[in-house]
TrEMBL record, chains A, B:
It comes from Paracoccus zhejiangensis. GO terms for cellular component: cytoplasm. The keyword Kinase does not apply. Residues 180-305 form the DHHA2 domain. GO terms for molecular function: metal ion binding; pyrophosphatase activity. It comes from the Bacteria. The keyword Transferase does not apply. Its cofactor is Mn(2+). Keywords: Hydrolase, Manganese, Metal-binding. This is Manganese-dependent inorganic pyrophosphatase.
Amino acid sequence: MIKVLGHKAPDSDATGSPVIWAWYLNEVRKTPAAAVLQGEPNTEAGWMLTRWGVEKPEIIADLAAGEKVVVVDTNNPAELPASINEADVIEIIDHHLLAGGIKTKTPINITIRPLACTATIMHDLIGEDLAQAPEAIKGVMLTCILSDTLEFRSPTTTAHDRAVAEKLAADLGVNIPDYAAEMFAAKSDVSAFADDALLRMDSKEYELGGKQLRVSVLETTAPQVLLDRKDALMAAMPGVAAADGADEVLLFIVDILNEQATLLVPNDFVKTVAEKSFNATVTGDTVLLPGIMSRKKQIIPALAV
Amino acid sequence: MIKVLGHKAPDSDATGSPVIWAWYLNEVRKTPAAAVLQGEPNTEAGWMLTRWGVEKPEIIADLAAGEKVVVVDTNNPAELPASINEADVIEIIDHHLLAGGIKTKTPINITIRPLACTATIMHDLIGEDLAQAPEAIKGVMLTCILSDTLEFRSPTTTAHDRAVAEKLAADLGVNIPDYAAEMFAAKSDVSAFADDALLRMDSKEYELGGKQLRVSVLETTAPQVLLDRKDALMAAMPGVAAADGADEVLLFIVDILNEQATLLVPNDFVKTVAEKSFNATVTGDTVLLPGIMSRKKQIIPALAV
């Protein structure tokens, strides 16, 4: 049984693309496979599974040595189980930069494309066999693309991601604006999460000026709900950083509908980062960054200190 | 101008696949590109260029910082210019194991497939646009596949490599057995090369039991020509190893037509490797290994000490 596995913070793409590829391996390639997760899906991903009647994949803590695994939506060992290089990675499908940490013992299939979403790459790899897919698989694929592109608002969006999503929506009879509004409402419902969980929910590690950063993003249609919790979120940052071996946490609250982000500014280091990276003027403990929506395209490349 | 670059020891695939991809970038994608080499093409690759009227690509020593480069037929920094991680790698197309040393700053196109030949992967990526290709490009593609598969004899050969080569040969009106015989005669004409050049001609670095090995292969239809030089070849090994930071050189003379290899045995270390890796009985300074043709599939995975 092949395990299909995404990164440690299961958003829609990291939850949905293992489901899509496990379907493809089982039903088209006739190879037994199962989607697995490294943690609880976020609220949008959980909503997606319910909406399309897909069973929640098993949550695993690690992989056995020699276990066959397909890695999707990441290629970074820091986002994978500790034993990833002892497992047998048989395929990688991803849309992130090449992190350089995974080695394989033999040549395998690796497909990395500069598209907004892993599910778009899978759409292309599956090709005409997608006609065999049940609505649930197409619905998951559509959700992944709308999630990663923030309904085509993110600058990571390519014309191809958009065309694939529009084709899937037409096929499923889904109205994209209505559907995306439901998705984003689910993503924005974070009332059940503690402050430290929010800081870790969608977070990537990044080194800047000798400091190890957690660069965290919360995409929401209700930014005020999170801004109302800003004091508690900032108070939780030193504990999360210490527990995770980081020096600082940067939290960007991305306002999907108004296409802007608010960065919390708990200290002078983050103030300097905000000023040097985004040419911003910081006066209080938050700073508004107009147009900033994508960690990959706009935040990480800009980071300076 | 994008540079398209293969590995350090330009055989037919490492010479031809940059030529193919530079054609595709220039003529189909309308993006200025040039094939380049890291050294003189081997005798087979040189014959291929002459046979199809392709100008020999420029030989370069290094890349400038930020220079755009497509890496083909390798993904291993040890086989690339020293400054590869300062250059701007914009695409990788390969059929080797993931070596893990290249990092990229943004997501790029990476296509690695467990096929016998990079040119086969390019055939698939180019798709219907191959109809626009001149005969020279198809002829180079055919040569790469016949070279890497040793005319379908190598165990690395897949049904897909074979089907692509047969389609290309039919299209070009080329008789594969006659054509391959000419190719292999060119590859076997190594009279102009000094012993140290032969030891480095088709060589990969590999660590075994704490020792750094140069695992060298010479594919030939005239093994006796090389066996007649075995004393000189063994005498050259310590100097080549020392100059290249290796501990030992393993030289496998692959007899293409009889589908077997002869390993030179200059010392007790190599004798032990031969015995432990291939269950061979070594009595003199050579050992015949029936059926062994592929470094990737049969030699490297078997190496033990």
